[in-house]
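Model it.
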Amino acid sequence: MNDTDDIKPDHHPVQAKDDCLSLVLTFLVWMWIISVTTGQTTTEIFLSGLFPLAPSWVSALSILIQAVLLLLPLLVLALLWRNLRYKAVFKTWAMAAVFGLVLLPVRLLLPYAAQAQALLHTTLILIYSAILLLIGWRQRPQELEGKSLLPLTRNRYSLALLVAGLIAIPWIAWGAFGSLLDTILQLLTGVSFGIAASLTFEVLLFPKIHSTSTNTTRDFLLGGFAAGSALLVMASGMGFGYSVMQSLLMISLPALGWVMIGISLPDRKSIALKTWGPSSILVGISTAIPILFIDADELALIISATPGEILGWAYKAALSSMAIGWLIGISMFLGILVKIARHKEMGTDLTDRPQRTAFPFLQIGAITIWILAAILYFVVGQPGFYGEGLFVILKDQADVSSAEQIPDFLERRHYVYSTLITHAETAQADLRQTLDQFGIEYTSYYLVNGIQVQGGPIIRAWLSTRPEVDRVLSNPWMRPLPQSPPTTEGTMVDAPIEPAWNLVNIGADRVWKELGFTGQGIMIGQSDSGVQWTHPELINNYRGHTSENGGTHDYNWFDPWYGTSEPVDIGGHGTHTLGTIAGAHTGVAPGATWFACVNLARNLGNPALYLDCMQFMLAPFPFGGDPFIDGDPALGAHVINNSWGCPDIEGCDPTSLESGMRALRAAGLFIVASAGNDGPFCRSLNTPHATYEEVFSVGAIDQFGSLAIFSSIGPVTKDGSNRTKPDIVAPGVNILSSMPDDTYGYNSGTSMAGPHVVGVVALMWSANPALIGDIDRTNELLIESTQPYTGMLPNCQGAQANPSTAVGYGIVDAYRAVQLAIAQGK
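Modeled.
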């Protein structure tokens, strides 16, 4: 019997015409599956980026719609179609859609609850697998006696480990583990997915494919095609937050379909549930490796789309895995053709058992690949565990409110600094001693009386029982990149000649020309992604470049991320925002002086990183200095810009930074915060620290005076205060400012709006130094001088009131604010 003969089951005669019709219908259904599945995932990624505060049920609804659209035709075909091979394909695809329904509860969890997601993933996938096992045990094994068989290898486990090792290499080289607990839970998720996928194919697909035909080449192509498509649907059904991780699995896993059918080619009379073990290893490892080495939350960050960031590396790894899977699948298919040709040439039957290989090539190959992967991990990769940390907030927070009664500004700052230090040293003494005894790494903070601790759930549980501890927050750390991303550059080369629209609209140019104030004598503190200090817009008013201190970065630059010794900016965000404050041609207050700190080098901070920079703003210290000992409040900032927020994903709760902001205000620092870019949802202004009463929060308008669609809207409800925020609005759409490598560019966001208000305060305090440190009066003057907002307002609680939960008291007016500031001194 040759390989092209069909064996037709006696109970279901299959004609060639029926086979052709089945193939055409299968292709049409496959096109529908591809359209629905990729469309759902792409839409969810887009919507999660556009509306990050969308409720979790939106994600659950999207996967429910996908399942319904897939199951409607697939269930009909699975029940009614006569051709057993294609009937099995439709059943398999329908079960893959059911898999997404089983995992639907995972999508109801918060997107950043990675550990809870992993636990629920594993639990639900094992339930799905148990159901498949019951189905498999109840059905009659498929008999293959008398039919031509073509096993590729008897060393199925070695083949699975070899392929999985090859697929793992790109991820191992470019990614990094999360915490130890994350690694364990994600490994369980990947392994359970591999078991579920393999059982799906072993119960529903491969037995029918192998038992209804002896055309091995055709069965290999059909089975691999069906398995790969099912893997695509199953990957889309996983419940990772923001769906970006699903897209990676949807790229890498479907290519394994032909490898799996190759592993399953039978060499025994009964094949039901006989090869799921090696298939589970192959798919389990291939699924676990991406979610082990890439943080699903980091993938969703906007900045991740920039060149050199984690999203780029992740897609390179996924495409590499896809190419490896396809190449191995093609190789296996070519091996089948060679084997068929050899049997035909020798005149032997395909049922002849393969001869045992004298040398164990597959075993040696699998071992070698995994040894190379381990070497690659330790030599080229990023060994170690990342991502998990704790921030402990103590109950006893210092009260420095009396500092506001101290008339001398410098004396007031020194009092706040020394009081905070003394209080933290005393309140933390017992806890520090215990941490030292157990050898647990930690860093103490004074602005918020707290301690950053390296530890996981066990240490967290222990810390929570301590009598001096109020609460323990997550303090996540981003995983390292294989190499530093390239600097983000702007698009313009030449500096602007005339003031841009945003400066003209708020009257900053009139302040310079008519009133003669440019912010001279005022110190700006910038906490952001960094700064290119040599940029022509910024170099001349960087305190570390001036002649007064001989030109030094000590006390003028702090990088808690990488410990760089001079100001740098990879992302470009900080250079842009600072250029709007103090740029020579782009800034509201071009005469102000500045120094800076990095709290968001890669757009994902944590409570400790934010406090690192806030402490530096109050009392800068030299490179390598101790904030508790070497801080100098006399060199602190007057006004600080904060174009950032600390959402739940970064570990902050509604009041985590509040005592720190209260202390900064008591020390006389004017704190400006961008309102956030989570509009147009009502009550979307809910991210510390823009929510705090001690902070002046700024929303964004465009060139025509209309509220930007992305500008977050109050009131603040997360902390139960129902506080009206933002306080004011400023230009924040298409703002021209400095970018790294001496370039210029346009950016939009409330991050661009906040710096305008920082610059206006600098102009006010420069015009009337008696206002320096007088936060209450400065607030009043800013509010009193606002231009009325006349644009459209959202239909949200308090949006039509004054102050408005959408635009605060109105649009900032630099000229009028400085006029009122000058009048205060008369």
